[in-house]
Amino acid sequence: MIKVLLAEDMHMVRGALVALLNLEPDIEVVAEVSSGDQILPTAKSVQPDVAVIDIDLPGKDGLTAAVEIHESLPGCHTLILTSLGRPGTVRRALDAKVKGFLLKDAPSDKLANAVRSVAIGRRVIDSELALAAWETDDCPLTGREIEILRVTARGRTVADIAAELFLSPGTVRNYLAAIVMKLNARNRVHAIRIATDAEWL
Fold first, then answer.
1. Which residues fall within 8 angstroms of residue 37, CB to CB, at 6 or more apart?
2. Where does 9-165 have alpha helices with state H?
3. What confidence score (pLDDT) does residue 194 get?
4. pTM of the model
5. Closest to 174 measured CA to CA, from 156, 189, 158
6. Cβ count within 10 A of residue 56
7. Helix (H) or strand (E) run with residue 31 in it
8. With contact defined as beta carbons under 8 Å apart, do 105 and 84 qualify?
9. What's the average pLDDT block by block, 10 residues per block, for the chain (201 residues)?
10. Which intervals hold domain Response regulatory (predicted)?
11. Could you give the C-alpha distances from 95 to 23, 54, 61, 107, 173, in angstroms and in order?
12. Of 18, 43, 93, 166, whose CA is between 20 and 30 Å from 64?
């Protein structure tokens, strides 16, 4: 039996996915969460074989949570489920050591088969998306820098960012200065525009 943790913030979508997966004779959803910061603690508790994670979650984005799972629970493989099929997003998923990347509008049997493949360590990514991802430019920013820039893009102040990410305001300013420099940007707003256009956020 393949044990699955499902992370999806939309209640109806999560319920439908749980029902679909539990119809499979060899798959059991052992936990479901609605925010990114619940993923790692729950995964440590239930020890799933596969974590099916929505990329856009409140609290912490799905790719950040996937990196944490990869580092803390190497026996649990991650499958990103998203409505965003952009090449830059796929590239970020590959960099995060995600085993699978599936669009939400994929047929339901494709999801079950993807879970089975990911559970045994196979990589499952749409071939056209994977090819497009390899053709995009490498992102010069670290995962932490992307996280900080993403929060900044929501209009948060340095103090807000520091509180949300448990950093000092000085550390946040240092990160932002490094981001602006790496992207050859004029300022933070320009850096956000550059990263958004390149699909790194």
1. 59, 60, 65
2. 11-22, 39-46, 62-72, 87-95, 108-119, 127-135, 143-153, 158-165
3. 87
4. 0.67
5. 158
6. 15
7. strand 27-33
8. no
9. 96 93 96 96 97 90 90 94 70 79 82 95 76 64 89 93 93 95 91 84 77
10. 3-119
11. 32, 16, 15, 26, 25
12. 18
Q: How big is the CA angle at 64 (ends 62 and 65), to the nearest 5 degrees?
A: 65
Residue 145 to residue 161: CA distance in whole angstroms: 12
Are the beta carbons of 177 and 185 closer than 8 angstroms? no
Distance CA 12, CA 196 (A): 29
Q: Say if CB 101 and CB 90 are below 8 A apart.
A: yes
CA 193 remoteness from chain centre: 21
Q: What angle do CA 68, 73, 77 make, to 5 degrees?
A: 85
Q: How far apart are CA 50 and CA 21, in angstroms?
A: 12
Q: How far is CA 19 from CA 24, 54, 62, 69, 108, in A?
A: 9, 16, 21, 24, 11
- Say how far apart CA 64 and CA 141 lie, in whole Å: 14
Structure tokens at 119: 């559970």
Q: How far apart are CA 180 and CA 150, in angstroms?
A: 13
